[in-house]
Amino acid sequence: MNKTSDRVDAYIEVALEVPRPHADAVCNFIIDNISNGIVLEEEEGSRYVGIKFYIPQNTDRDFRTPLSTFLSALDSPTMPQPPDIKSRIVKNTSWEDEYRKSVTAITIGDDIVVRPSWDETTPRAKYDIILEPKMAFGTGKHETTRGCLRAVRGYFKPGMRFLDVGCGSGILSILADKMQAAGIKAIDYDPIAADNSLENFRINNTTAPYEIICGSIEVCAGDVPYEFVCANIIKSTILEMLERLDALTCDGGVLVLSGLLVQDMPDIEAALKGRGLVNFEILTDAEWRTVIVSKG
Predict the structure, then answer these.
(1) 40, 181, 258, 271: which has the fewest Cβ within 10 Å?
(2) 73 and 219 together in one domain
(3) Is the Cβ–Cβ distance between 33 and 2 less than 8 Å?
């Protein structure tokens, strides 16, 4: 059963520039509260990073007020006040053409290659993941996605059932399928991500039984606990969901938490230990962290 949204023909493209030290925090805020579809424009040596994100034209969400409030609260003398947030309407095809320019193949470890669907030149690997990267977070370039891919590669076993919370492009679920998952449930609150995951599942000829659902963790109520659960989101949401994520991970299973910065770790470690989850490993990639919890 796959529940996705109707096709969107046009989007609001929102553009802003932020001081480089604040780029990760702003991206996290946008991903958590507004949109998963982000493009970064970085020039070497520049003190600023350009950020573009995209939301459906017919949305009724107010993106300006929460974003302006967040930007104004940043402790930065170089942040314009009020923040300069530009927007325009773009057709779906315009977005895809723009995004294609920023997406190239990447290699993770010795045997994972993630490549866009139009790339026919990159050498194939044991786990060859093909993405049609549109407006979903998770092309493999971001440190948190890389951390999760490494966690799945290192700990996932054939026959496990996989729960992907905040699935984005579906990249982690696709790797689990290629590693012989017994079943997959992928969820994301963003309908664009749910649509893109379905497209990418089909491109990769996913063979495991699967569900792709637009929603949050509440859509997992009543599920039989999974052997492998991955939540690549942000600290505040992980802390809010931790009790349910723990319950959805069976005894002897693996829970992967990512989307975390180094400064998030004291709170995350304290929350895990408070639930008796003391057997965990932390993967490091620049300032980002991925936590692999082994239960039982």
Answers:
(1) 40
(2) no
(3) no
**pLDDT of residue 4 exceeding 70:** no
DSSP 69-119: HHHHHS--TTS-SS---EEEEEEHHHHHHHHHTT---EEETTTEEEEETT-
Q: What is the rounded distance in angstroms from the CA atom of residue 85 to the CA atom of residue 15?
A: 6
Query: Is residue 35 within 8 Å of 196, Cβ to Cβ?
Result: no
H/E stretch holding 74? none
Q: Is the dihedral of CA 220, 225, 228, 231 positive or negative?
A: positive
Query: Cβ(169)–Cβ(144) under 8 Å?
Result: no
Q: What is the CATH number of the domain that holds 45?
A: 3.30.70.120
Rounded distance between C-alpha atoms, residue 230 and residue 15, angstroms: 30
Question: What count of residues does the chain have?
Answer: 296
At 214-224, the pLDDT tens digits run 999 999 999 99
Instruction: Report in angstroms the alpha-carbon separations of 154 from 12, 176, 286.
Output: 39, 11, 20
| pTM recorded for the entire structure | 0.73
The answer to whether the beta carbons of residues 232 and 145 sit under 8 Å apart is yes
